[in-house]
Every structure is written in structure tokens, then in C-alpha cells.
Amino acid sequence: MTDKKEEKEQIGLKDAVSIGIGGMVGGGIFAVLGLSVELAKGGVPISFLVAGCIALMTAYSYAKLSVAYPDEGGTVRFIYEGFGYSVLSGGLNNMLWVSYIIMLSLYSSAFGAYASGMFDITGDHIVDKHIFISAIILFSTFINYYSIKVVGEVESFAVIIKLIILLAFVAAGFWGITENPNFIQLSPENWESPVQLIAGGMVIFVAYEGFELIANSAPDIKHPMKNTPKAYYYSVIFVILLYIAIAVVTVGSLDFADIGKAQDYALAEAAKPKFGQIGFTIISIAAMISTFSAINATLLGGSRTNYEVALYHELPEEFTKQLWGKPLGLLIISIFTLVIANTIDLESISTSGSAGFLVIFGIVNFIAFKKRKTIFANKSITIIGFICCILAFIILTIQQIQENATGIIIAFSIFGTCFLGEWLYKKHLKKKIDHQ
Asked: Which domain of life is it from (predicted)?
């Protein structure tokens, strides 16, 4: 009886792939599509391809590490396996925790943009997007405290709805797209420089980061040696193709100037030429459902991450305490998200998030390279993945310093604070132990 029960509770390949797709096709594509077009112009499909290739190489490292070290901590566990209990591992795990907050801010900002855009079509410009941003963060926090089961149900519903709508958008968008006068925008003469295309891909890299959620589910995946790698590869490849298709339809349907005007809700605006106002409304609703589910799932994942990091004494022990039956870290994350989402612009948030995950993913690739004999990983793929992440981070930094220094300043401030805070906390713990 026990064996059958455990068999039923395991996650199959289909469910594991859904976790990866659901994590990636969350709020990212709705939030950063307009920004990516602004940076790469007609070459935006190339930008998504470049970012996707880096994500795919990193997914290889994650797959190998997930099979060798299946743990609910996912990335947290991999970092400890690579560097042990140290200031370096603590600082990196703190960066991961803060990156969750950045992602929450991105999703919340996107929700606010699409929600306020819905009011604009009625001629009511009074409702500010920050009202929606704050409301959705508070509401999602309430749901997480109320019931984890509800969070799971919201996520399951949202994954189905957003994929149906996005696939319908792509299918309808390709129908007769070559006859649209804006289709010429996709020609190479309308692409930005290669460096700008790469930079554009790195700014929007946050749209791919969600595949790492598979690592947190690795202990429960049925036939892990076979299904865990497949879950990573299938989900990442599917999303790469989906994003490229969305980028082609958007640029081929809508003038650059119109995309720029509606940068924060570009995907909804791109539905207008084919479907009119109804299309705008449907995509806006899909974006709101999608970002809402992403906020719920990320709040849950972020609170669990800081709880686990605190158990290893990398964060203050207050993060392990409970409030209304849930980790106190959930409330702390929500407060930080409220502040960031309401004070920092979307591009800076996206840049900070992409920079953070490029560093984290670069480190994971390095750990896979370092542990390659133990985890039976290919030396070339892991080291190329590491080099690509670091080069992409450098290109992103240089490009953003020239055009949007705020995002890079925020990113480096976060890096410095995470490591300085960890060093001071470790020093405090040592003194505390010495006095006992």
C-alpha cells in the first residue's frame, strides 16, 4: 500500500515540464516584450534566441546537478555543494533570495501596467498603476498566508489559460502576417548591432529564469535519471520557440513607435491589428492572470528559499520563525516587493533581475564544471555555459551603463549588500559562539 501511495505522489514528465513552462511563461514575457523591442528593434527574435541558448546550456547544468543532488532547496543546495558553508555560498544564496524579490517586483509592475491599461481604454486615466501594484502584492500575500493549496490551484489554472491565449495569439498573428506593412520591420536592415542584440537578450533574460523551479521538484520526479533532464530540455526549447514566435508576431504586426508608446503592455497592443479592442482586452486579462499566478508562486518559492538559507545560518534566525503558520520571511519579502515595485522603473527592475540571474546561473554552470566527474557532465557544455553567462553579464553591464545606469547601480548595490551583509553576519555569529 505504501509503495502505491508514494508512486501516486510522484511527479511525471508531463507535470515536471509544466512546472518549467509555468515558471518561465509567468510574468516575464508580458513585462519585458516592449523593452526588448525598444533595445533590439527588428532583431528582437534574435535577442530571445540568444538568451534562450544561454538558458538551455544552463538547463543542462541544472539537469545534471538535479539528478546528482535532488533537493527541495534546488539552487541553494547546488551552491553549498560547490562552495561549502562559506561567506561566498552565503552571499550567493542571499543574492538568489533578493532575486526573487526583484522578480516579484517585475511581475507586480507588469500587472499594474496591464491593469491600468485596461482602465485607459474606457477613457478613465485616474487610476494609477501603483494602486494595482500594491493591491496585487497585498492580495497575493494574503492568499499565501491563507492556503498553499489555493496557490497551487491558481497556478494550475493560470498555466492552462495563458498558454491557450498565447498560442492562439501566435497562430492568428502568423495568418497573413506577410501582408502587414509592418512585416518589413523584421528584415536585417532594421536590426540593431550584434552587441545591442545580445544586450537586448540579456535585459530580457528574466523571462527564462523560471526553469530552475524544476530543481526544487527534483526529489519528487518519477524516474529522475530519464525524466529530470527531459523536463528541463523540453520546457526550455518549447519556451524559446514560443518567445521567438511572439516576438515575430509583435514586430510584424505593430509599428515600432506604437510598441514604444505601449512599452509596458506591448503584447496587448500587438493584438489590436488582428483582433481590435477585444484582442487588447483578452491579452490584458491573460497578462493579469499570468502575472498574478507568477506573484503567488514566487512568493511561495521565495519564502521557502529564505527559510532554508536561514536554517544554514546564512540569514538571521528570525527568518525561520512562523507568523500565522507560515514563515516570517513571506511577510518580509512582501514588504520589500512593495517598496521596490513602487519606486523603481520597469527597465531598471528587469536589468537588476537579469543581472542577478546571469551571475547565479553562471555560478551554477561553474559548479557543474567543477563537479563534472561526480555528476557525469560534459566539460565543454558546462564551461561554455559559464563563459556565456559571464560575457552576457559584462555586455549587459556596459550597455546599461550607457543607457540606463540605474538598473546596473541597483544590481551592483544588491551584490555588494548581499556579500557584505553575509560577512558581517558570519562575524557576528562567530563572536556569539566565542562568548558562549
From this structure: Bacteria
